[in-house]
Amino acid sequence: MSAGSNVMSQFFQSDFFYYFRQNKTIIVSFSIFLLMVIAAIFAPWVAPHDPYDLASIDILDSQLPPSWMSGGDGRFWLGTDEQGRGIFSTIIYGLRTSLAIGLLAVILQMVVGIVVGLFAAYYGGKLDSLLMRFADIQLSFSTLMVAIVISAIFKTLFGAQFYSEYALLLLVLIIGIAEWPQYARTIRSSALSEKKKEYVEAAKVMGFKPLRIMFRHILPNCLSPILVISTVQIANAIMSEAALSFLGLGMPAEKPSLGSLISNGFDYIQSGEWWITLFPGLVLVLVVLIINLLGDWLRDVFNPKLFKG
Q1: Under a CB-based contact definition with an 8 Å cutoff, are residues 180 and 116 in contact?
Q2: Long-range contacts of 158-166 (CB under 8 A, 24+ apart)
Q3: Residue 133 backbone phi and psi in degrees, to 5
């Protein structure tokens, strides 16, 4: 039997998979999330229209209602926006952008937070106090406030055109910078308890370098809380992007994300084109809800004292 088959066999026999099979809510949530991820990855093939292709967009199709309403067009199931783009297609592409920002921002948060947390816990003393006080100062401000300040600075320094062109990368950087203290504090707490264990003392006696001890010995034993935090942080990052886009500091109108789609359609609610904002808003709520449900379940599974089956 191959190594891959052994791993799969062990996974299907694990308590983790058993608890997953017993929870129908989580099965449904994970299935919906998986479908969303697949649709986002294969957006060019799933979406009926390409919202980036200006040649396929007709301004005469703008603000059409959903196909089941009077005046609707069968080509556009959920109607069109002010530019004539199909709402269903823009939601799929917007979901792709929002998930990419959420995932990449969390990876950045994780890298910075893990490094800071491990160094603070391992070396302690003045370095620990300095790093944690810096994290505390940043945590005293709301994530959105920090993100707004940083995004405003980027726009001022590089200009609106540069910001619009590199909006996705800049948002990843902005949200990543704003949220790393969550990881740093959690990793520091876990690493402090691991640092006192015998295997760390044995590694020091054997002459291993601090970096090897931190990243090859201590870090693997701190992965459970990292996984739980990451699911919640992805939802937070997506919400932060949506809030920034709604305030005009996120993705531009020509590069749809769920947040920018909601923002673009907000001005048309009073004139009756409610579908431009409503459908992207519902998808955003669904994504955040599902990710939070998965995160709460993971937290309970990895903490037997909280888990109730």
Answers
A1: yes
A2: 164/252, 164/255
A3: -70, -35
Asked whether residue 60 is domain-assigned, the answer is no
Alpha-carbon torsion, ordered 142, 145, 147, 151, to 10 deg: -170
- Look up the pTM and report it: 0.84
Closest C-alpha to 219, from 199, 202, 194, 197: 194
Counting Cα atoms < 13 Å in the Cβ hemisphere of 56 gives 10
Query: Is 47 among the domain residues?
Result: no
State pLDDT tens for residues 190-199: 888 888 888 8
Alpha-carbon distance 141 to 283, whole Å? 28
Instruction: Tell me the CATH number at 230.
Output: 1.10.3720.10
Task: Note the pLDDT tens digit of each residue in 162-197.
Answer: 777 788 888 888 888 888 888 888 888 888 888 888
